[in-house]
Amino acid sequence: MLDDEAQKDIETWHAKNDALAFIGKMLILGMPKLMKAIGIICIIAMLMVGGGILLHNLPFLHDVVHLGSSLPQVMELFITPVIAALIGGGLIILVKGWFK
Questions:
Q1: HEC-encoded secondary structure of the chain
Q2: What is the pTM of this model?
C-alpha cells in the first residue's frame, strides 16, 4: 500500500536526494496519525449530520434551533451543529443501551 510504496521510494531516492528520502520517511511516520485524525473528524461529522436530521425533522427538537436565533450569527452557526452532534451522540448511547 502507501507505506510499501513510500519505503521503496525512500530506498530509491536516498541514493539520489536526501530531501526526497526525508519526505518519504515523513509519509510513513505521519500516515497513521493522519488516518486517525480523519477517522475522528468523520465521526464528528456523522454525529452532526444524524443530529441535524433529527433536529430539523422532529417538531419538538426543531424549536431548539430557534433558541439560538437571538444570538449573533457566528454563535448561532456554532451552537446548532454542537446541539445536533449532542443529539446524534445521545441517540447512539440510547440505542446501544437499549439493545445491550
A1: CHHHHHHHHHHHHHCCCHHHHHHHHHHHHHHHHHHHHHHHHHHHHHHHHHHHHHHHHCHHHHHHHHHHHHCCHHHHHHHHHHHHHHHHHHHHHHHHHHCC
A2: 0.56
